[in-house]
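Q: Here's a chain of 244 amino acids. Please give me its 3D structure as tokens.
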Amino acid sequence: MPSGVTLTEMMASHTVLVIAGPRSRELLQSVSPRCDWSREAFPWLRAKSMYIGHAEVVAMNLSFSGELAYELHVPNEQLFLAWALLHAAGAEFGLTYFGLYATESMGLEKGYRHWKADLIYEHNPIESGLDRFVKLDKPDFIGKQKLLEQLARGHIRLFVAMNVDCDIAPAHGGDPIYADGKQAGSVTSGGYGHRIKRNIAFGFVSPEHTSIGTPLEVGILGKRYGATVVEPCQYDPENRLVAA
């Protein structure tokens, strides 16, 4: 990042295009002859400066859809050029458009969580199921002492993913979760997973109700519907598609 330019300023000057799907790499390679988009040269969870035509972009090989996908951070003055090249080349690859509801549906199937919905300050990383990102054996990091104090006090709520037996509506943030007839927590997000054909909800509940297979109930539109605690990632849990 150039000296004197803040992250906020850079984000305001760029627009993100997302190219997702099993042929996304082929499409990008077709409009980027000077760059190598192969898995070996540009593996999963990497970011590189790449070119779409002569438009320089920051490309990230990551996915919120659970499919092979790339985020392209394009300078606004080159956005139309990049979009036009991708749009024209996309005909050969069956390119179509998708919206945020589709993205959120696919993210739920993968167990991906939303900042400010499923990831909130009220719950620490361990309670949020992000244990793999926290190394308590590190000598020190910002917030370590407070985190250790919270862990010593014990967990009040833990993150769960649920499949809900309701075919009329998804759960919404704030909807109640019940266990043994009593409220045990609340929903943080929900939606229908069209690839796995399940009504999915995320939320936080009392620790004793978090085991896989635990029966719960979720309040939706004033009625209670049965739900079952499941593994958060229900689509391609081995990540074979995103890392293809």
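Q: Can you summarize the key feature?
A: Residues 27 and 91 are 10 Å apart (CA to CA).
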